[in-house]
Structures are given as structure tokens and as C-alpha cells.
């Protein structure tokens, strides 16, 4: 299914390759680079590229491209999902999925890839099981290893692979039995220029960390399960029970896992915790302009808001900006013309003067920005990630 | 990249690995091996330390073993003789008490990829299939497929296949899935693994125990099973119901496809399924992973083609957010275009209008075309928006708007008046060929309603000399002639000038011919011109530009969850066709075997069948570069494979001949001057299998005959014959031109 995997960094170096069947030459990536060149922006590379002999399915994660080489017809979602799982595993093992981390742990990376895929087919991808096969690197362990000469590879087979419930290993024992649930909800919204909501929706997940002995059978009930649309479950949840009683009943895996993910899409339930206002003006007869953004918390929410980041993409003609934030810090990246971020604030008022240098260019800048003010709805897309415990879960063992 | 100084590194590592002190110290030994691996991954050639690495494999340290095996799998094809030495250790490890070691050794042994290894791995694999640890069985089952690949695809070991079929009953779910994968690969020639009733039912019962990858694949395999009765069918659907709500989009899509195909005779069930997966699909469309999002959007479009209103209530889901990559935005615009209805048209158009002024020209143009598409149903609102866009006086916007107008007045004649009012002034902002053609066409066809039409066309005629696109000139000729019929007084002079230019000065033949044609037509009289140019226009109801009618679900069900929705059917057909031809054989037995109603697959197979005889024919490689020395060496080392004479009169023009040969990918190595006696030429060509054809042409002055001698690097008569026939054709053609 998956013939080979290439990891490519932003500057176009192939820094890792792994072949599961025959060796595919690196030159196959030229087609990928070609597409990348055509796309102008790295983020715009199409995920599926066809070449005379192969298909290249790629994902872009944390400034790295994971390019897989496929030789026969496959379900594209399957491969994309798997590549994300690979990236997730790296993230899980090394704390970050970056080029440096992968290069530092290249041996573990190869071990992982070897276990995750055999002959091109996914094998062990559950993080619990992998961690028993190959222990993740920690500072303590590397010190211990260097003293005792022991390895980071489990000497025994993971028991989970032999138990009747594939996601849980047998004979788990803890002295403190505890279970934690994190309810994380993200609001995706498009706000139009006058500040009213065009579209808003909550994407929620419940992540669990379960440290319970034996084979616990848990059930979790919600105050108002009707709010949840499109729930998708971890395989451990008994689907029939949810359908009939709206109760989550399951034997959990050991350790960290994602229990469910869901959406809340009815508009009136989604309250956006911040407001955004903006104003753009131009000085007559000069190539400069002024651009203000105000962001503040909505009063009725009753929760403090932290960690706000504002990112503004400016058009390419903008040469420079002078920024004066009322709170927090800022940077201007002249390459991508992106202006992040502001941190920890109750209310932000940001002023910036921008200029595009050459007078001749002015006309196009003017028209572009003017058009944007007049017509563009959804000019601000606010994406807040606000972790707070929303519904108290009720657990009974 | 071959690094300079890799020899030094190899030498140093070799020393370290041989050092008995290092070997005694486990940590230092392992570090040295890790360095070898690190260099290997950076592209250095580390095959020099193969011997030392083989020795290092005899250890109890499992990490060290893993590293050494990784190394061996990479370099074994380069050093097959040395790799055989390692097999002994590997075989010993295959009977280690630790199942991890057994599995590891077996997997490495199967991945050695070198000739002659089959005889050594057969027994360990058979033992592995009966191992008590499931980990080893998993490896062994896939090892069967690898062994089969090493054998070359010739014979299928019946006993092994039976063993694998019986392992489908294994306790371990991954062993079961691996069996399917392995059988599929081994039986590729025979159409893959066979799913009969007991196997299908067994798999269905095991489904909940599998991991998500296994579920997705088993669902795919189940497509081959055809339930005997309606009752059985609905039992299966009930069993699989929960997979439509799985957390993995891959499983959801595979389940959807299975449902659609199994229920092909029950359209209401199909619709029901599509309603059920609406939620998961929409969730995938707003997933964090943009690649997933993209693939899901492609499938949404596919569904919309059969159920146009399916996602209409969720139209806001498909509004673009500014940070999304282009490929997603373009898909979303297409989707928006298809789910417009009376209630949401206002909001959708408002949103699309926002996109029209996007910084990216491509995206802006796609949005304008989308508005044009919606205009077929909601003409007035769209034409108004498009007209407003013209006011921005942006080049890339204006040209697309004018093109949209051109398509629109043809399909919706009622909007002609509005379009004609919007057009004046556009000509200043159009630079590209497509836009100019559209504008000129509009001015020609509806010129009588646009007051300044003749003067705009006159401007174009003034600048016709500097016009670079012949298509624009052609369009200009037609348009001006049309306008001349309705407004003769204003156009006569301009038309005269244009015709004069086209006939006297124009260098492009097509334009000149068109000019001459119109000139002669005018000579035939004005009535004749009217009869030809203003005959009834094509009827919009012909449906040339109209959307294809709703297509039944069954027409695309077999393409669902494949790459077809990503590429679009037409493009996919061409891609897979050329890939299939290159691979010399139909590679997609799985799609073909469960094709139900999809017309694509049978068509494709037919095309393939026609292509196959061709693929055995001669294919000359376009740029085979052979140096003169190399040619000479090869020429003297080979015997003449074929010699013949062909008729030839007069002298040879080397340039003509060289050019003609170039066209058929035959390169000229050396050639005598024109008129030399005797005249000689040496040619070379290479076909796609790497076989060289070297040719000598010899023309003696006294007889009118060209002597051709061909030498071939690999003796194969059929390609030789086709090469000679190619050469003969060229020589014949050149000869004919002269005589």
C-alpha cells in the first residue's frame, strides 16, 4: 500500500527516507518539488500528486512534508490519516514533530516506522502498544541507559496485543486509581465587517487519561446529550448503548486517548467570547495608511480570556509596518507578511502604519485594500482555542 | 548526495567496529553502529563496513540487532554474497525463545531483497506461520507476500495459499488482516483473494475487534462479496451500521462505499446512508488536517452530483476561511456553487463576492466563474454583482467577468441587455487573449445594442499589427464582419482596412485564409454573407454548456473512496490509462472485479486491451546521447544484424535527413558533407528497454541505391523489424520529396 516515505523540510531537503518494499529513487520527489514551485506558497501544495509511475500523497505538518509514495489505487483518506498518525506518534515520542527532533532521534524514528508499517501495511499504531515495544526517550532513561547499558526497547512482547480487548493490556495495576477527563472545545467562527457572526461552530473533544487497575467498565453520562451533533467515538465505546440511552459505556484503554469528538453547530448556542473591530484609512497623497484592530472580551461571558494571538496577513506590496499595541508583544515577518502575536490581554488596541515604498505601486495597494473594506465579509476569522471544563463528567466504576 | 570524504568516515568506523576493546564494551559498540546508521540515513555509502556489521549481528543486545538488521536490509542488494553470511545468524534468531527477536529476525530476513534468498527464508516462514506468538505470525504472514514477490510473479504456491486461507481464522485480528493483504498480493494475477460466504461472515463478526486500518481494509475486501438473499444483505448492513459513525474518516468512507454498493438495488437505502454520513463528512470537511478536509470536500462534490440539495442547509460550512490553502478554497467554491437554492442564494453570493477581490488572482477568478455558474439560475442578481466587479478596473477581474458574460448571454439570452450596458469601458482593462476574444465576440454579436462597439473594434484594428495572438485576430475578423451587417456605415472603412491587412501583411496562415474567405464571401454579395453569418444560432437547449443531469448514485458508487473523486473522472481515466500502459498490464484488478454499474471501468479495460499489443512494440527514447567514441566502440564490437538497400535518386541533403530522423528519435552521430562521394552517415537510437540500434547509411555515387546496415545491441528480431520499418519510412519520405 505505502511503498516509501520521504520527510522533506521547508527548504526542500529530503532528510529522511524509508522504503518498505523496493527502493524508490529520491528523484520521484522531483514531481513534488515541481508542484511546490507551482503552488508558490508552501502551504498550497496539493495533497495528491500523480506521477507517471506513482502517486504521491503528502501531508504538511509543523513545517515538514510527509510524502508517501503509492503505487496502486488506494483510499486517499486512509493514507492521509495514517500519515497524520505517524506525525502524531513523533509528536508523542519527542514532544515536537520537528526536523531537529527527528534527526536527533533518527534511530528511534526508524524503529517506529518499522513497527508501524510492514510491507506497506499499517501494523501497530496505538501509542500504548508502541510505547511498550519501543520506549520513548527521556532524559532519565538516557542517563540510566548510559550507565547500565540497557536499551530503550522492551524486552517482552506487549501484552496488549494478546489480550481480548485490543486497546487494553492485561494485568494493569496502579496504587492510586484515577481518571481524568479534559473537555476541550474550539470555536470556529467567521465574523463579518460589521461584527456580526456569519458562521460559528464548536468542535469539541474529550481526551481522557485513565489510570485504573484491572478491567474497569466505565460509564459517563451528560446533562444534556442532545447538544452534541456528529459524535464520533473511540472504538472502545459501546455504540448501541449510546444510541438507546445516550450514555457512554466503555472499557477504557490504559493511559491517554481521545474518548469522543463532537460538534455543536446550532448557531444560537455558540457564543463567541471576544469581539473584533477594525478600521483602515489612507493618507491622501502618500503611500502610507493606518490600520486599527480592537479586540476585547464580551462582557456577558463571565470568563477571563487568556492567550490571545492575532495574526494578520498583509498583501505582498506592503513593505513595512510600525506597530503600537496597547498590550502584549508583536512581530512582523517581512517574508510572509504576517503579523502575530499578542499575548495575555483583556483588551487590545492595535495601531499600525504601513507603507509600500514605491509610489508607482500605490494604486494597486489602494484598490486592493479598499475593495477589502467595502465588500469582504468574514474579513476576520477568529479562531479561539479555549480549554475549560464545560460539563462535569460523572463517573461510576 | 555523495559526500566527499565518505571514505575517511568508513575507514574510521571500520576501525572502531573491529577494535576488540570497542566490541567488549556494549555501549561503545552500539554507539559505533548508531553512527553507521546515522551516516547511512544521510546518504553516505556505508556498504564498506558490511562485513563488520554482519559480525555485530551476533549479539544479545536487541537494539544492536535491530540496527544491524536495518543496515543489512538497505545494503543487502549491493552485497549479496556477503549478506548470505548474515543469514546464518538470522536463522538462529528465528528460533530464539524471545518472540520479539524471532519476529524481528524473520521480518529482516524477508526484507533482504536479494536474489537467492528465497530458499533460506521458506522454512523459517512456514515455522513462523505456526508460531505461538501472534507477533511472529503477523510477520510470517506478510513474509509470504514478500517471498512471493522475490520469486517473481510466476507461480503460486498452492499449499501456502491454503495455509493462509486457514489462518484467516486466527485469534489475532492483525494476523487476519495481514492474511487478507498477503493473499491479495500473492493472488494478484487471479483477481485477488476470494471472499465467499463463510469468510465474509467470519470477517463481519471479527470487525469490532480490528484496529481502524484493519476495519477500513476489511470493508474494502467485503465489497467483493455478494449476499445471496435480501435478508442476508440487510443483516450485513445492520451489523455494519456503527461503522458509519466511527471516529476514523477512513473507516466511515469505506463503510459508506460498502453500503452504497451492497444496496445498489435499493435507492432509498442509499439515500438514507448518505444522510447518515452527512455528519461525519461535514466533520471531516472542517477537520484540523487540511489534507483530510480536501479529500472529504472532493467526496462531498461527488455526492452533490446525485443529490443536489443534500448539503444546502449546511452551506455556511463551506465558507472559506482566510488561512486555508488554495486547493481547499477552490473546492469549497465549487461546492458552494452546487448547493445554492432560493433560501441561501443571497448569502452565498455575498460570500462569493468577497472572494472575487481576493489577493490571489487564481482564487478570485475561480470565484467569478462560480458566480457565472450560479447566474444560469439566478441571472439578475449575479449579473449585477459581475457588473459591479467591472467597476474595480482590475485586469485579472475584468477579463474573467467578460468571459463569464460571453457564456452567459448564450445560455440566458434574457440578460443580454444588462450585459450590453455593462460592457463599454472594459476594453481598457483587458490584456490577455481569452478576455480579448470574449469581448470582441460580444461586441460582434450584440454590437447593435452597444453604441460605441464599432469604435472599440476600430481601436483593435488599429493595433492589429502588434497583436500577438492569432486567435484574437480571427475573432476580430468575424466580429467586425458581423457588425458590418448591422451597422454598415460605421464599419465599412475599418473592415476594409482589416481585410487588407489580413490578406496582404498577415503572416499567420489561418488568419490569412480566414481573411481571404470573408473577402470572397463579400464578393458573393451581402445577402450571401447574411445567410451564412446570421443563420440561426445554436439552441441553448442543446445543453452543450449546461450541467449534466443528475446522475444516479450507482454511477459513481464504485469510485467512492478512491482517487477518482480527487482527480475528477475524466482526468483520472487519462492518468490511470497512461500509468496502466507504462506498467504494461491492468494493475487494478480490485476495482475491476467489484465494478458494478460504473461505466468507467469496463471502458478502461477495453482501452487497455487495445493498448496491450502496442506496448510490445518499439518505443524509441527521445534523447539518447551517445558520444562518437562510444558509438565507434559499440559499432566494432557488434555484428551486422540486418542489411538492405533502398532506392535513392540524386544527392542527399544532410540537414533535411537529420531533421527527419530527429523527429522519429533517431540521432545522427556523424555524416559526410552534402555531395561527397561516397556519402556516409552513422545513426543511433535506443528503445525504452535500453536496446541500442546503430545504423550505417552508405550511398555509392555510381548506383542509385542507399545501403543500410543495422546493428543491434540485444538480438531481438521483432524490435529490429519495427526499427527498420521506421527507418524505411523516413528514407522513403525524404526520397519522395526529392524525386
From TrEMBL, chain A:
Q: Which residues form the signal peptide?
A: none
SUPFAM superfamilies assigned: Second domain of Mu2 adaptin subunit (ap50) of ap2 adaptor, SNARE-like
List, alphabetically, the InterPro entries matched.
Adaptor_comp_med_subunit, AP2_Mu_C_sf, AP_mu_sigma_su, Clathrin_mu, Clathrin_mu_CS, Longin-like_dom_sf, MHD
Cite the PROSITE patterns for this sequence.
CLAT_ADAPTOR_M_1, CLAT_ADAPTOR_M_2, MHD
Which terms in the GO cellular component ontology are assigned? clathrin adaptor complex; cytoplasmic vesicle membrane; Golgi apparatus
Q: Name one Pfam family in it.
A: Clat_adaptor_s
Per the record, the GO terms for biological process are: intracellular protein transport; vesicle-mediated transport
Residue intervals of the MHD domain = 176-397
The answer to whether UniProt assigns keyword Repressor to this entry is no
Q: Major place of localization?
A: membrane
- Where does this one sit in the cell? Cytoplasmic vesicle membrane; Golgi apparatus
Annotated membrane topology is: Peripheral membrane protein
Which keywords appear in this protein's UniProt record, sorted alphabetically?
Answer: Cytoplasmic vesicle, Golgi apparatus, Membrane, Protein transport, Transport
Q: Which family does it belong to?
A: Belongs to the adaptor complexes medium subunit family.
Q: Which PANTHER family match?
A: AP COMPLEX SUBUNIT MU
Protein name as catalogued: Adaptor related protein complex 3 subunit mu 1
Q: Which organism is it from?
A: Suricata suricatta (Meerkat)
Origin organism lineage: Eukaryota, Metazoa, Chordata, Craniata, Vertebrata
UniProtKB/TrEMBL annotation, chain B:
InterPro entries annotated for this entry?
Answer: AP_beta, AP_complex_bsu_1_2_4, ARM-like, ARM-type_fold, B-adaptin_app_sub_C, Clathrin/coatomer_adapt-like_N, TBP_dom_sf
Q: Which GO terms describe its biological process?
A: intracellular protein transport; protein targeting; vesicle-mediated transport
Q: Which domain of life is it from?
A: Eukaryota
Q: Is Protein transport there in the keyword field?
A: yes
Return the similarity comment: Belongs to the adaptor complexes large subunit family.
Per the entry, what this protein does is:
Component of the adaptor protein complex 4 (AP-4). Adaptor protein complexes are vesicle coat components involved both in vesicle formation and cargo selection. They control the vesicular transport of proteins in different trafficking pathways. AP-4 forms a non clathrin-associated coat on vesicles departing the trans-Golgi network (TGN) and may be involved in the targeting of proteins from the trans-Golgi network (TGN) to the endosomal-lysosomal system.
Please report the name of this protein according to its UniProt entry.
Answer: AP complex subunit beta
Organism, scientific name: Suricata suricatta
**Chain's gene name:** AP4B1
Amino acid at each position: 500500500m505505502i511503498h516509501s516515505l520521504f520527510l522533506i523540510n521547508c527548504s526542500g531537503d529530503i532528510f529522511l527516507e524509508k522504503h518498505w518494499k523496493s527502493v524508490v529513487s529520491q528523484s520521484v520527489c522531483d514531481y513534488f518539488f515541481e508542484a511546490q514551485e507551482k503552488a508558490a506558497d508552501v502551504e498550497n501544495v496539493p495533497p495528491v500528486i500523480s506521477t507517471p509511475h506513482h502517486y504521491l500523497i503528502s501531508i504538511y505538518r509543523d513545517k515538514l512534508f510527509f510524502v508517501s509514495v503509492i503505487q496502486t489505487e488506494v483510499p486517499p483518506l486512509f493514507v492521509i490519516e495514517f500519515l497524520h498518525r505517524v506525525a502524531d506518534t513523533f509528536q508523542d515520542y519527542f514532544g515536537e514533530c520537528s526536523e531537529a527532533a527527528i534527526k536527533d532521534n533518527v534511530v528511534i524514528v526508524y524503529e517506529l516506522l518499522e513497527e508501524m508499517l510492514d510491507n506497506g501495511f499499517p501494523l501497530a499504531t496505538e501509542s500504548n502498544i508502541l510505547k511498550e515495544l519501543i520506549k520513548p526517550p527521556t532524559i532519565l532513561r538516557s542517563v540510566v541507559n548510559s550507565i547500565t547499558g540497557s536499551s530503550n526497547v522492551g524486552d517482552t512482547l506487549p501484552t496488549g496485543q494478546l489480550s481480548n480487548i485490543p486497546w487494553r493490556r492485561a494485568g494493569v495495576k496502579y496504587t492510586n486509581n484515577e481518571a481524568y477527563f479534559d473537555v476541550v472545545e474550539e470555536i470556529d467562527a467567521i465574523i463579518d465587517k460589521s461584527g456580526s457572526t456569519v458562521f460559528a461552530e464548536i468542535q469539541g473533544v474529550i481526551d481522557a487519561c485513565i489510570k485504573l487497575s484491572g478491567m474497569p467498565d466505565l460509564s459517563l453520562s451528560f446533562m444534556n446529550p442532545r447538544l452534541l451533533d456528529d459524535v464520533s467515538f473511540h472504538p472502545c465505546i459501546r455504540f448501541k448503548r449510546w444510541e438507546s440511552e445516550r450514555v457512554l459505556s466503555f472499557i477504557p484503554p490504559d493511559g491517554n486517548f481521545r474518548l469522543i469528538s463532537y460538534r455543536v453547530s446550532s448557531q444560537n448556542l455558540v457564543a463567541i467570547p471576544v469581539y473584533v473591530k477594525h478600521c483602515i484609512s489612507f493618507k491622501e497623497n502618500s503611500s502610507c495608511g493606518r490600520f486599527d484592530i480592537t479586540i476585547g472580551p464580551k462582557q456577558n461571558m463571565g470568563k477571563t480570556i487568556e492567550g490571545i494571538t492575532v495574526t494578520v496577513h498583509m498583501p505582498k506590496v506592503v513593505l513595512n509596518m510600525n506597530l503600537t499595541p496597547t498590550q502584549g508583544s508583536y512581530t512582523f515577518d517581512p517574508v510572509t507578511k504576517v503579523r502575530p502575536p499578542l499575548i495575555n490581554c483583556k483588551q487590545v488596541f492595535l495601531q499600525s502604519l504601513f507603507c509600500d515604498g514605491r509610489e508607482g505601486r500605490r494604486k494597486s495597494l489602494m484598490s486592493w485594500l479598499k475593495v477589502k473594506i467595502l465588500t469582504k465579509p468574514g474579513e476576520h476569522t477568529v479562531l479561539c482555542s479555549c480549554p475549560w471544563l464545560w460539563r462535569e463528567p460523572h463517573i461510576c466504576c | 548526495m555523495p559526500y566527499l570524504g565518505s571514505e575517511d568516515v568508513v575507514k574510521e568506523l571500520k576501525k572502531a567496529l573491529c577494535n576488540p576493546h570497542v566490541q567488549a564494551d556494549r555501549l561503545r559498540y552500539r554507539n559505533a553502529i548508531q553512527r553507521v546508521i546515522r551516516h547511512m540515513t544521510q546518504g553516505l555509502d556505508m556498504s564498506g563496513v558490511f562485513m563488520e556489521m554482519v559480525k555485530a549481528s551476533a549479539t544479545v543486545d536487541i537494539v544492536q540487532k535491530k540496527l544491524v538488521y536495518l543496515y543489512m536490509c538497505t545494503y543487502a542488494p549491493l552485497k549479496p554474497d556477503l549478506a548470505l553470511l548474515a543469514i546464518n545468524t538470522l536463522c538462529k534468531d528465528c528460533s530464539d525463545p524471545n518472540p520479539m527477536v524471532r519476529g524481528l529476525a524473520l521480518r529482516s530476513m524477508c526484507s533482504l531483497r536479494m536474489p537467492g534468498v528465497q530458499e533460506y527464508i521458506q522454512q523459517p516462514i512456514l515455522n513462523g506461520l505456526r508460531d505461538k506468538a501472534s507477533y511472529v505470525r503477523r510477520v510470517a504472514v506478510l513474509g509470504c507476500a514478500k517471498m512471493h514477490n522475490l520469486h517473481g510473479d510466476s507461480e503460486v504456491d498452492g499449499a501456502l495459499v491454503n495455509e493462509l486461507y486457514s489462518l484467516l481464522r486466527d485469534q489475532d485480528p492483525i494476523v487476519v488482516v495481514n492474511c487478507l493483504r498477503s493473499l491479495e498480493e500473492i493472488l494478484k494475477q487471479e483477481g485477488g483473494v476470494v471472499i465467499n460466504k463463510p469468510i465474509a461472515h467470519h470477517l463481519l463478526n471479527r470487525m469490532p475487534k480490528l484496529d481502524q486500518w484493519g476495519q477500513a481494509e476489511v470493508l474494502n475486501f467485503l465489497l467483493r462479496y455478494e449476499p445471496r438473499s435480501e435478508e442476508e444483505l440487510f443483516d450485513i448492513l445492520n451489523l455494519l451500521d456503527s461503522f458509519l459513525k466511527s471516529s476514523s474518516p477512513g473507516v466511515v468512507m469505506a463503510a459508506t462505499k460498502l453500503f452504497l454498493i451492497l444496496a445498489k438495488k435499493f435507492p432509498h437505502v442509499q439515500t438514507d446512508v448518505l444522510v447518515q454520513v452527512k455528519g461525519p463528512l461535514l466533520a471531516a470537511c472542517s477537520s484540523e488536517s487540511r489534507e483530510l478536509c480536501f479529500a472529504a470536500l472532493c467526496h462531498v462534490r461527488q455526492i452533490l452530483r446525485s443529490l443536489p440539495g443534500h448539503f444546502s442547509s449546511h452551506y455556511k460550512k463551506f465558507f472559506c476561511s482566510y488561512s486555508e490553502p488554495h486547493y481547499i478554497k477552490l473546492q469549497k467554491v465549487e461546492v458552494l456553487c452546487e448547493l445554492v437554492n432560493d433560501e441561501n442564494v443571497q448569502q452565498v453570493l455575498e460570500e462569493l463576492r468577497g472572494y472575487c477581490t481576493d489577493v490571489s488572482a487564481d482564487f478570485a477568478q475561480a470565484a467569478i466563474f462560480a458566480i457565472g455558474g450560479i447566474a444560469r439560475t439566478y441571472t439578475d442578481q449575479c449579473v449585477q454583482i459581475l457588473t459591479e466587479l467591472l467597476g474595480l478596473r482590475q485586469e485579472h477581474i475584468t477579463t474573467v467577468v467578460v468571459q463569464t458574460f460571453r457564456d452567459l448571454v448564450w445560455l440566458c439570452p434574457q440578460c443580454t441587455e444588462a450585459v450590453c450596458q455593462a460592457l463599454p469601458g472594459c476594453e481598457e482593462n483587458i490584456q490577455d487573449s481569452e478576455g480579448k476574444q470574449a469581448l470582441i465576440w460580444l461586441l460582434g454579436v450584440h454590437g447593435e445594442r452597444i453604441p460605441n462597439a464599432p469604435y472599440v473594434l476600430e481601436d483593435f484594428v488599429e493595433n492589429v499589427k502588434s497583436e500577438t495572438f492569432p486567435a484574437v485576430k480571427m475573432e476580430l475578423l468575424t466580429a467586425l464582419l458581423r457588425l458590418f451587417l448591422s451597422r454598415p456605415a460605421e464599419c465599412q472603412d475599418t473592415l476594409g482596412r482589416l481585410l487588407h491587412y489580413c490578406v496582404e501583411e498577415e503572416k499567420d496562415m489561418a488568419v490569412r485564409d480566414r481573411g481571404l474567405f470573408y473577402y470572397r464571401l463579400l464578393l458573393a454579395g451581402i445577402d450571401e454573407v447574411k445567410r451564412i453569418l446570421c443563420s440561426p444560432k445554436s439552441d441553448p437547449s442543446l445543453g452543450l454548456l449546461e450541467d449534466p443531469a443528475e446522475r444516479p448514485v450507482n454511477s459513481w458508487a464504485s469510485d467512492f473512496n478512491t482517487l477518482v473523486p480527487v482527480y475528477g473522472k475524466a482526468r483520472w481515466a487519462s492518468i490511470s490509462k497512461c500509468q496502466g500502459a507504462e506498467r504494461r498490464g491492468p494493475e487494478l484488478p480490485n476495482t475491476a472485479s467489484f465494478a458494478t454499474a460504473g461505466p468507467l471501468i469496463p471502458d478502461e479495460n477495453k482501452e487497455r486491451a487495445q493498448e496491450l499489443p502496442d506496448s510490445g512494440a518499439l518505443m524509441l527514447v527521445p534523447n539518447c546521447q551517445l558520444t562518437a567514441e562510444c558509438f565507434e566502440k559499440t559499432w566494432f564490437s557488434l555484428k551486422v544484424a540486418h542489411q538492405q538497400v533502398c532506392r535513392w535518386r540524386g544527392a542527399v541533403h544532410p540537414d533535411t535527413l537529420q531533421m527527419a530522423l530527429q523527429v522519429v528519435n533517431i540521432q545522427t552521430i556523424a555524416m559526410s558533407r552534402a555531395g561527397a562521394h561516397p556519402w556516409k552517415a552513422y545513426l543511433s537510437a535506443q528503445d525504452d528497454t535500453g536496446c541500442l540500434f546503430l545504423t550505417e547509411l552508405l550511398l555509392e555515387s555510381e548506383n542509385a541505391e542507399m545501403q543500410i546496415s543495422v546493428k543491434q545491441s540485444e538480438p531481438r528480431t521483432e524490435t529490429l523489424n519495427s526499427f527498420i520499418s521506421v527507418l524505411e519510412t523516413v528514407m522513403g519520405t525524404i526520397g519522395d520529396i526529392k524525386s
